[in-house]
Each structure stands twice: as structure tokens, then as C-alpha cells.
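mind reviewing both lines:
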Amino acid sequence: MISSFISIPKTPQRAENIAGHSDELYFSITIKKPLNPAKNKINLMCLDILRNPGKALVSAKKQKNMGRTWLTLAGASVLVALAAALVVTRTTGAFSLQLAGVSALSVFIVIFILSIILGFVLRIIATTLGGSGSYFEGLTVISYSMLPMSAALFVSAVLALAPAGVAVSAIVMAIGFAYG
């Protein structure tokens, strides 16, 4: 991927000094700008989902990018798992890091599998009610609506570590769950 942006000549070139003598060898590196920077740009996809979820869903329907949907689902599952690990660490103390790791892994697996099943159920419900849609649309709706809720859970778990952060974390969770 980097080699498509950087070109290095195969042979060294000689540098001429003021007297016209070439006593140094140097390599020149040319960095090329891609023709379409939108395709090659690393995009923080969660920001557009968090800013305007309706527009992000319409954009996802147009693009039909299943990889982005899976990545969003994995990101949301990771955020919920990290929030669970923080809550377990706060509840049981800092000495039970192994318990926090096991709980984070189990929460990640459960959230991921339940989201996959819910995407399938949503597709069945939509087609039964006379709508059209595929598994992609069902999974996209589930994963895109889960991201604000999981981000709110993570932020509230971090805020709950502070002594007076429980009240603020409850407000953050309420806003995140309403947004999702």
C-alpha cells in the first residue's frame, strides 16, 4: 500500500557541487498524491455514524459495503466489551484483571453473535411485513444503531471511575441510548 504512494529510483543519482564535481551519491524519494484521496483515506467511520446516523444509513445503502458494516459491528462490540471490563475492574478492584479480561471477551462474543442473529431476524421481519431487504440491510441497521449506544456505555464506564462520575455517566448513557 505504501509502495503505491512512494517511488524510489533504482539507481542512485550523482549530486553536482558548485565546482561541477560529483562527490556524493543520493537517492531521491518522490511521494505521489493519490488520484482519488477519498478511496485511499483512512476514514473514522464512527464519526459520521455518530454525527448523522440517518445520513450514514442512506450512504451505507448506496455503497453496499458489507466490510464496513462488519467493521462497525466489531467496533461496537469492542466498545461494549471494554466498558464491561472497566465496570468489572471498578466493582471487583484492580487485582482481578484476569476476570476483567474474561468478562470483556465473553461480552464481545455474546454481543457479536446476538447482533448477527438480530440482523437476520430483522431481515425476516421486514420481508414478512411486505418490505424488501437483504441480510445486509438488517445487519447494517443493527450495527449502526448499536454504535452510539456502545460509545455511550464506554464513556459512561470511564466516567464511573471518577468518584462523582456516576451521575454524569447516567446522563451520558441516557443520551447515547436515545441517540441509538
In short: Residues 97-128 form the longest helix (32 residues). Helices lie at 37-40, 45-51, 53-63, 66-92, 97-128, 135-159, 165-179.
